Recover the amino acids of this structure.
């Protein structure tokens, strides 16, 4: 094994050996070892092709599992070397692999310690995943202090000294979501991804009929009222009889949604106005209707901050909305000192953020961003903002800053980098939509880290001179 057990205490721990490099195989579960080279291939498949764990398992079983290796095993050993697609073996292996790799790369926390007597491997890994998530929040991404010729412009004086260093980042949101508490803007994690409320707000787990405050009955999403129970029964029957819904669409002349619509799942939160007397077949206008909300709530979006070169500096989960105040708090957490604030922050709603900063009675935040240009990105300024909006024209037009244009009249920075990066980021929606919160954050942070490394290597090949600004200089 690659660990030893520190016995003699009630809270026995698995302490993984400190090595100069990862071992060839890691002990990922009882009687399960997996090669670190195989894990590296799976990581590359996920970050480059959005390959799910089940598809990684299928590819491995069809391509890599070796019958010749099985024949060399002792008779007492299992000859089944295939990855089980349904028991989470691969996910647990990948999370352990990423944790060991993280410890190897970060000398501040060189030893991985896990609880030995945990109920499951998922529970065993969770505290370590959570600890890494806390470290990655804000300034934690290894490329947070990245700069290169595409995202940073340095103006030199006649004597060769630096007169101006302008760093450009773009902020944007993308609707990747996971299950969360149905209480608006609650950030507490769910005990299970199938729950509707966290432990703190479980008292709100009321009947799904909007106007009813009665508690739900065990095994149901409605109370004991027969009329409300009929709503849930009707919904289940309707979901099972999809052809009836298709007929209704045709009768109303509506186009049928595509079968691959990610929002077509009944899990998505919707307001269904259903006839309360669902058994008599009468038209809706003759009966009283009630509104019921059966789906779980999901996080609103992921907010990303991307350098104009495409390297992602950080991300955060937004729960209730992508409000200007939320974006401001995200930026303050990502750039906690005035020295770390980039010279240019592009955002499609910077006019609202600037108005909020100007009207804030406390000038702390206003001073924090005082030296930062905050224009609306060029695409949204032309297509999404009114020409009659005087405040936006006077404060967010990129032409207000001469430094944002080159001598030949072109834009110095790519102001659409976040939207372009989010095309890649959005590919993970199907993989993470049912993930538990801790694993969700860890996985996305890991994918961002791996892709940043790929992009930085490409920038080197293109001669864009990528480098890291000393963190001490930015955080002082």
């Amino acid at each position: 094994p690659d660990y030893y057990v520190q016995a003699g205490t009630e809270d026995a721990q698995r302490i993984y050996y400190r090595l100069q490099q990862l071992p060839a195989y890691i002990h990922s579960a009882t009687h399960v070892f997996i090669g670190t080279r195989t894990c590296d291939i799976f990581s590359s498949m996920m970050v480059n092709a959005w390959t799910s764990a089940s598809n990684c398992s299928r590819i491995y079983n069809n391509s890599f599992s070796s019958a010749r290796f099985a024949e060399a095993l002792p008779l007492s050993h299992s000859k089944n070397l295939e990855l089980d697609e349904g028991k989470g073996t691969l996910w647990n292996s990948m999370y352990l692999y990423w944790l060991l790799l993280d410890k190897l790369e970060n000398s501040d926390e060189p030893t991985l310690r896990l609880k030995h007597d945990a109920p499951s491997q998922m529970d065993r890994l969770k505290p370590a995943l959570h600890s890494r998530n806390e470290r990655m929040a804000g300034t934690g991404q290894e490329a947070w202090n990245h700069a290169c010729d595409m995202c940073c412009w340095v103006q030199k004086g006649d004597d060769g000294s630096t007169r101006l260093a302008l760093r450009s980042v773009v902020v944007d949101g993308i609707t990747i979501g996971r299950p969360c508490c149905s209480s608006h803007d609650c950030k507490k994690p769910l005990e299970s991804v199938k729950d509707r409320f966290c432990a703190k707000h479980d008292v709100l787990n009321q009947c799904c009929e909007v106007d009813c405050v009665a508690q739900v009955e065990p095994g149901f999403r409605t109370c004991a009222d027969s009329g409300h129970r009929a709503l849930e029964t009707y919904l289940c029957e309707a979901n099972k009889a999809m052809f009836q819904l298709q007929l209704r669409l045709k009768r109303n002349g509506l186009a049928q949604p595509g079968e691959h619509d990610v929002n077509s799942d009944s899990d998505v939160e919707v307001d269904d106005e259903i006839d309360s007397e669902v058994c008599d077949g009468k038209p809706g206008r003759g009966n009283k209707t009630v509104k019921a909300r059966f789906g779980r709530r999901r996080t609103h979006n992921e907010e990303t901050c991307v350098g104009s070169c495409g390297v992602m500096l950080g991300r955060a989960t937004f729960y209730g909305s992508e409000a200007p105040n939320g974006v401001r708090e995200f930026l303050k957490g990502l750039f906690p000192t005035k020295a770390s604030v980039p010279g240019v922050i592009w955002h499609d709603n910077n006019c609202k953020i600037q108005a909020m900063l100007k009207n804030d009675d406390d000038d702390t935040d206003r001073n924090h961003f005082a030296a930062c240009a905050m224009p609306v990105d060029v695409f949204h300024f032309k297509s999404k903002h009114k020409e009659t909006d005087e405040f936006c024209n006077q404060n967010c037009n990129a032409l207000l800053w001469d430094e944002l244009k080159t001598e030949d009249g072109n834009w110095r920075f790519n102001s659409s980098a976040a939207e372009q990066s989010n095309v890649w980021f959005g590919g993970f929606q199907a993989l993470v939509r049912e993930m538990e919160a801790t694993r969700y954050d860890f996985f996305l942070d890991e994918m961002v880290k791996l892709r940043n490394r790929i992009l930085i290597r490409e920038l080197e090949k293109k001669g864009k001179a990528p480098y890291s600004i000393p963190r001490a200089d930015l955080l002082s």
